[in-house]
Design brief:
Elements lengths: L1 H39 L2 H7 L16 H20 L18 H21 L8 E4 L2 E4 H25 L9
Antiparallel strand pairs: 1-2
Helix pairs in contact: 1-5, 3-4, 3-5
């Protein structure tokens, strides 16, 4: 009997020790995500620096224009949270129509709003969402994987945006 109580106490102590560690790891993930997301969000300063007359420019016919890249980033900032994590876009945002937005002011506005939406959602997101299972491109993943995909997607298009800017003689604001 004493042996069972000892084992139960040991298991309880281990479980109590793990719980704070899990909370710390979750907080650490959210902090790391936020830092990477903020870094990739520098695309907003590039969108503001690009002249309006270049927003319809594209390096060749079969690829996205400058404004299409920015609206694509904005759409998926909302999409991953809504579709995969159940965090809906604001009522005044129609995710399916974002990529049809044109004009510098409107494009910058939706990009800026999408970035703010993700930042707020991460801050308010219950830690349990990070471990919840969901589907991403037909694969079972957890919430952390969805957020990693969001960063990967955004970073890919930030690189594309930098290339577009440099092809047009625009130096990214953070390189001045």
């Amino acid at each position: 009997m004493k042996k069972r109580i000892g084992v139960c106490l040991l298991v309880l102590m281990i479980m109590l020790g793990i719980q704070p560690l899990q909370a710390q790891e979750t907080n650490n993930f959210k902090n790391q995500f936020s830092r990477h997301f903020d870094y990739a969000s520098r695309v907003l300063s590039l969108a503001k620096a690009m002249p309006a007359e270049l927003y319809s420019w594209r390096p060749s016919e079969e690829v996205m224009s400058v404004e299409e890249v920015y609206t694509h980033i904005a759409r998926y900032n909302y999409y991953y949270l809504d579709e995969n994590l159940g965090i809906p876009a604001p009522d005044d945002v129609n995710i399916d129509n974002i990529e049809s937005i044109t004009g510098k002011e409107e494009v910058v506005d939706i990009l800026e709003r999408s970035i703010a939406h993700v930042k707020n959602a991460i801050k308010e997101m219950p830690d349990s969402k990070l471990q919840e299972e969901t589907q991403l491109y037909g694969n079972a993943v957890n919430g952390q994987a969805v957020l990693m995909q969001l960063i990967t997607h955004k970073s890919e298009h930030v690189g594309q945006s930098i290339a577009y800017a440099r092809m047009n003689g625009i130096v990214p604001p953070w390189n001045r």
